Amino acid sequence: MSEHAKTLAERLIRNVHEVPYTDFVRPPLYESQRSKLSLGTAARKLGTCFDILPPGKRVCPYHLHHAQEELFVVLEGTGTLRVAGEMLPIKAGDVIFIPAGPEYPHQIINTSQAPLKYLSISTLEEPEIYEYPDSGKFMAEGSMDRENPFEVIAKIGRNAGYWDGEP
């Protein structure tokens, strides 16, 4: 392979089985292994992760986005999409579309007895405001450059930590 071809491959191709995972555990509900696939690529407007959730776990609190859209592709396993106050079954082969806006708070939960594996793809719209309906928090984030981002997590009338009020 030429040097140019090697450079292109490094900037444009990721294999979910070869990117290192980050383990995350926050008992009792949150646990995952995650690979940030788009990190270090030429992508500027797409965030892409490969997530593995153990049985009974979720990766993040129930939330909604004001700017970003998300797409999830279930690759293996079954679980539940908590969305807009409903619990919807999901399975391998499902593609889930989550538009920005208050109509679609969402969370993926592994309600099965086997690992749930899926791709998370999001637009990287900035600035972004997230809302967390279960805890009454919001998070604002953005950056003029990726080296110096800002992030604020608060409740109306007081500051809050990311996990305040979450189960």
UniProtKB/TrEMBL annotation:
Residues in coiled coil: none
Record keywords, A-Z: Metal-binding
KW Metal-binding (keyword) present: yes
Pfam families: Cupin_2
Matches recorded under InterPro entries: Cupin_2, GPI/OXD, RmlC-like_jellyroll, RmlC_Cupin_sf
CDD domains: cupin_SPO2919-like
Domain Cupin type-2: from-to ranges: 52-121
Protein name: Cupin domain-containing protein
Organism (species): Lysobacter cavernae
